[in-house]
Design a protein that fits this description.
This protein is α+β, with helices and mostly antiparallel strands. Helix content is 32%, strand content 31%. The chain has one domain. Strands 1-2-3-4 form a four-stranded antiparallel beta sheet, covered by helices on one side. Strands 5-6-7 form a three-stranded antiparallel beta sheet, covered by helices on one side.
């Protein structure tokens, strides 16, 4: 029988090396999963913000009198600003992209009250682009946003204006 007193130095080093590779591999898998989770969470947040903003804008624009939409040059040049008069209340309403140089912006809604009007935020600071284009009685709203490493998210919706006796 051979005398058994423990591991040799070489055996211990080989075992530690194998354990280090296994732990390193598991750590890389965990970090990769966490990064994917964080990226997808940010992407989902951007998508939710864009959907909410688009639905809100589409609903109000649908109520607009077609002949009151400003700027009137929406047929020729895309704009990041739109104003209109609501059919139901005769109040002015609108949307714009409020963006400072080098920063992401937010979509703001123009609300007219008794003391004038004010611009209130609709989305957080994740919007990179807002474009309104008009073709006849149809307005297309295109919004782009990004948060962190989510990548650019783009949403586009078309609004058909109500045309009838009152507008």
């Amino acid at each position: 029988m051979r005398d058994s007193r423990g591991f040799t130095l070489i055996e211990a080093l080989v075992a530690l090396t194998i354990i280090a590779f296994v732990v390193g591999g598991i750590s890389l898998l965990y970090l990769s999963g966490y990064r994917s989770y964080a990226r997808e969470s940010a992407r989902i947040e951007v998508q939710e913000n864009l959907r909410i903003a688009a639905a809100r804008m589409a609903g109000k624009i649908r109520e607009a009198k077609p002949d009151t939409i400003i700027p009137e040059n929406l047929d020729d040049v895309p704009s990041s600003h739109i104003e209109f008069t609501l059919s139901s209340s005769e109040k002015r309403n609108g949307y714009r992209l409020n963006k400072k140089e080098g920063e992401d912006g937010e979509i703001e809604e123009k609300i007219e009250g008794t003391g004038g009007y004010t611009w209130l935020p609709v989305t957080s600071h994740i919007i990179t682009k807002l474009v309104f284009t008009r073709e006849g009685n149809s307005i297309t709203i295109t919004i782009e946003g990004e948060k962190g490493k989510s990548g650019k998210v783009r949403l586009s919706t078309e609004v058909n204006l109500r045309v009838g006796e009152s507008g």
